[in-house]
Amino acid sequence: MTGSELKVGIIGAGRMGITHHCIVNSRPDVRVVAIADPSVLIGKLLGKYAGVSPYRDYQAMLEREPLDAVLVCTPPAHNADILRAVAAKGLHAFVEKPFTLSAASGEELARLFDSAALVNQVGYVNRFNDVFVRVREMIEGGLLGRVVRFRSEMFSSTIVREQGEEGWRATHANGGGAIYEMASHAIDLIHFLFGRPDIVRGTTLSRVFSASVEDIVSSNFLYRDGVGGSLYVNWSDASYRKPTNKLEIFGEGGRIQADQHGMKVYLKESDPRFELKAGWNQLYITDLYNNVPFYLRGVEFTAQLYDFVDCIREGRRARCAFADASDTLSVIDAMFSDWQQIQSELGQ
Questions:
Q1: How far apart are CA 16 and CA 127, in angstroms?
Q2: 252-297 residue pLDDT tens
Q3: 54 neighbors 47 (Cβ within 8 angstroms)
Q4: Which residues contact residue 314 at a Cβ distance below 8 angstroms, ignoring those fewer than 6 apart?
Q5: Which three-class secondary structure state does DSSP give residue 219?
Q6: Would you place residue 35 in the very low, low, confident or very high pLDDT band (cuts 50, 70, 90)?
């Protein structure tokens, strides 16, 4: 699809829906024309000040609006039904992570969209963070030699007081809990760098403030080629003001410590390809980032949506397609299964 203006509809006008609206609408070749959200107030505000057609029912929007693509920003328990309706209308789709609540439903939707040649993308922004992109280039380029071990971590102060049973984040059935809401980012980063693990073992899901879902997640991932790694995610850590992704990789030739703001690289020998000396090297995001024409929340948020539009224009596969996100869901499924097995062995 080239030349014409891309007409976009958004389903869900919460924090991420509004964020994505601002970003994608900043492109001169894209126009957000309609938003579906059950809130009457939000609909009135967006209709008056954003110049879009407001709907309380996404099905009505899909029926009445001549759209090219849809951004789905609803709780994940609703996404499978919404995306089936989007595919039935022949529309390209971007959906917020973790996509759906099981690998089986994710794989079904991946087949549905791929068979119809519809661009499909899931919002795992780490794949568009320039630090983590450079880490992947370094690994693929053999900078560390044989990779032996990694650790993927994430911390935030999302839940730092007692939580009740209200709200979609309070139950797994709606996609709540640290494993769906936050650990999915850290797991997908592992996929992006190393591929899907072959074995998941030693999972723990710990509650701190939540009544029915986990606040802390940990697990171990093993690969047939000998690589091993660990996952640790805590969304109840009050020492972190903003969500932080941390990554550590150890190889025979050195190690990398990285977060979304920069990295430290230790090498036994210098590597002129990456302009790195033997010993410690410090790289900041300002040394690595690719600029974007519109900034909101982070360069990676704009980069992922601009890439989604470019994929539609150029007829290419998205960097994080539904099939990729289904791999992350398969690990989440395995973690839940592993935890249940451990609980059974402990007699709980």
A1: 17
A2: 999 999 999 999 999 999 999 999 999 999 999 999 989 999 998 8
A3: yes
A4: none
A5: strand
A6: very high
Total Cβ atoms within 10 A of residue 70: 27
Q: How many angstroms separate the first and last alpha carbons of the chain?
A: 55
Supply 183's token pair. 């650990």
Helices within the chain (DSSP H only): 15-24, 40-49, 58-64, 79-88, 103-115, 130-140, 178, 184-194, 285-288, 299-314, 322-345
Name 227's Cβ contacts closer than 8 Å, sequence gap at least 6: 147, 148, 149, 150, 194
Distance of alpha carbon 124 from alpha carbon 189, whole angstroms: 8
Q: Is the pLDDT of residue 19 over 80?
A: yes
Give the C-alpha separation, 315 to 324, whole Å. 18
Positive or negative: CA dihedral 174, 178, 181, 184: negative
Look at residue 2 and tell me whether its pLDDT is greater than 90.
no
pLDDT tens, residue by residue, 173-201: 888 999 999 999 999 999 999 999 999 99
Residues 291-304 pLDDT 10s: 999 998 889 999 99
How many angstroms separate the CA atoms of 217 and 204, rounded?
A: 6
User: Cα dist. 104→67, 107, 123, 328, 329 in Å?
Assistant: 28, 5, 19, 12, 9
* Spatial CA neighbour of 165 closest among 211, 216, 209, 207: 211
pLDDT of residue 347: 85
Residue length of the chain = 348
Q: How much is the pLDDT for 184?
A: 97
The Cα 171–Cα 153 span in angstroms is: 23
State how far the Cα of 119 lies from the Cα of 95, in Å rounded to an integer. Answer: 11
Supply angle C-alpha 80, 167, 54, rounded to 5. Answer: 60
141: confidence class by pLDDT, cuts 50, 70, 90: very high
